[in-house]
Amino acid sequence: MSQQQIETSKVLDTFREHMESVSPGLPAAFTEGCTAGDIIWQGDLGIEMIDSIPKGYKKKKVVAQLVPGNTEGSRHCLDTTEGVKMYFPADFGKEDCLNGPAVKVTGGQVVQHPKHGNVTLVAGAYRFDYQREYDAEMKRQRRALD
Amino acid sequence: MKNISEVSPSIIEEFRAEWTGVCLDTRRANKAVSERAITHVYEKSGHKKPRFIWSSSPADAVAKMVKHNIAKSNYPSAEASLAPSGGYMTHESIISSTLADLKLGADRREEVRKEFMKAANSFFGNCFYGQHEWWVPHYLFPMEHMDAEVSSLGRDIVSTWATISRNCGWWACFPDVCLCVDKPIAQHLDDQQRTHKEDGPAILYEDGMAVWVIDGLLLDEKAVMRPQEQTIEEIHGEENQDARSLRIERMGWPLYLQRSNSRVIHSRHNEIENTEECLMETPAGERRLVVTCPTNRMFALGVPNDVEDCHQAQAWIANGKDPNRVIART
Asked: Which residues contact B79 (CB under 8 A, 6 or more apart)?
C-alpha cells in the first residue's frame, strides 16, 4: 500500500468513526436572534434568511415542494402552505437554474425531508437555493461541445 | 400540406405512443410479414428475393455470418477497419462474448477474432434497425396526418418500411442473403426515455445477449452488477467521460479514492456543521471534496481544479452563499 493510500485510509477511517457518532435526522431551527444572511443547509438545499424578496422573483401559487423533480432527494417540502407567500425566479425549473423559490412566512412552518432533519422557520423571508454540482456542469459543457 | 399546429394534440400523442410502443415491442418478430415486406424492398431496388437467415440477437447474426460462410464476396469491404466502432454497441464487446464460448487456442483465436470482426463490420455496415428505425415515423406522420404530397412510390416505400419496423428487429441486407434479428425480450428506459437499468441488462435478447446501459451510457455487466469489483485500470480505460464518472459512482467514490492512489490535499473537522471534510485529488487531476453528512452518508463532490482547501470547496459548492454564515446542517 502506498503512502497516499495509507493517508487516504486514515482519513476515511476518521470519517467512518465520525459517522458512527452522529445521530441522523436531527432538526435545526432559525431563531428570533437570526439575521439576514444566516443559512441552514438541509442536504443540498440552502435555506437563507433574507431581508426582502430578490429582484425579478414573481409571486405565484404556493407549492409545498421546494425542489423540482420526483426523486427522494428533491422532496424538500413545507409542512403547510398556510401563512406562506411564494415567489419564483424567471428560470425556475430549468436544468441549470440553481435558484429555488423565495418565501415570506408567518413563522412556525417546517421544511421537511425524508432523510434530513426538519428545519423550522421563524417569521420572515427566506430564499431556497441549490448546491452547485460540478459533474452536472461538466456534463453540460461536454454536451454543448458535441 | 398542413402545419403541425393544425393536427390535433391527441393525434400527435397517440402517434407518439404507438411508435414508442413499436420501438419497445418485445413480442417475437412476425417472420412471414417481415420477409414479405423486405422482399418487396429488394424487388423495388431491382433485386431478387433473398435467402433469409434469422438470428436471435445481433451477436448471433454475426456468428451465423461466419458459421454459414455467408458469401465472403458479399462483405462490402473485406478489408473494412478492424477497429471497434466506439458506438453504442461495440463490435469488440459482441465478439469477445462470442469467442469466449469457443474454447480456441491462442493462435487460432486471433484468426477467428479477425474473421468475426470482418463479419461484424459487414453486418453492422449493412444494418437497418427495424423496430428502432427512427426515421420511419418521421416520414410516416406527415404522410398520414398532415396531407403531405408524396408520390405513390414514396408512399409505398414508407409504408413498407413501417411494416418492417412493426414486425422485425434489426436486419442486414446483402445481394442474395438477408440476415434478420428477432426483437429483444426486454428493453428498459428511464423517465427521460433513455435506455437504462440499474439491476440487470437494459436490453436482453432471447439467447442471452445482454446490453448493459445506465442513463443511456453503455457499460458492462461488472459495472452494473458488481461495480465494486471493477479495477482502477478498467475505470481509467473508459474513454467516454460520462461513462467513466458513472463507473466511479457505481464503485463508490470513497473506495475509488482509496484504490486509485488519490492524494489528500486538505482535511478538517467542520465544527459548525459537525461534519468531516477532506479535499482530494485523483490521479487524473480531478478534485473532490469528500464530506460526511448528518444523514450518516459520505459524498465526494466534484470541485474545480483551482480549489485549494475545504473552505474554498464549500464556498464553490454553496453557490455564492457564504460558508461563514452557515448556522447548521441537517
From this structure: none
What number of C-beta contacts closer than 8 Å exist between A and B? Answer: 125
ipTM: 0.90
Whole-number Å distance between alpha carbons of A29 and A122: 8
The grid coordinates listed for A24 are 441522523
- CB B214 within 8 Å of CB B200: no
- Pairing label, strands A39-42, B326-329: parallel
Q: How far apart are CA B300 and CA B276, in angstroms?
A: 12
CB A99 within 8 A of CB A87: no
Cβ-defined contact of B294 to A117 (cutoff 8 Å): yes
> How many angstroms separate the CA atoms of A8 and B261, rounded?
8
Among partner residues A14, A24, A27, which is closest to B295 by beta-carbon distance?
A24
Q: Are A15 and B278 within 8 A, CB to CB?
A: yes
Set of chain B residues whose Cβ sits within 8 Å of the Cβ of A30: 327
**What order of strands is seen across the sheet that includes strand A84-88?**
A58-60, A84-88, A99-105, A124-130, A45-50, A39-42, B326-329
What pLDDT is attached to residue B313?
Answer: 95
Collapse the DSSP code of B78 into the 3-class scheme (helix H, G, I; strand E, B; otherwise coil) and give the result: coil
Q: Which of A55, A52, A28 is nearest to A42 (CA)?
A: A28
Backbone phi, psi, residue B125, to 5°: -70, -20
| A101–chain B nearest CA distance, Å | 15
The pLDDT assigned to A118 comes to: 96
Contact A18 B292 (CB under 8 A): yes
Q: What is the pLDDT of residues B31-44, one digit of tens each?
A: 999 999 999 999 98
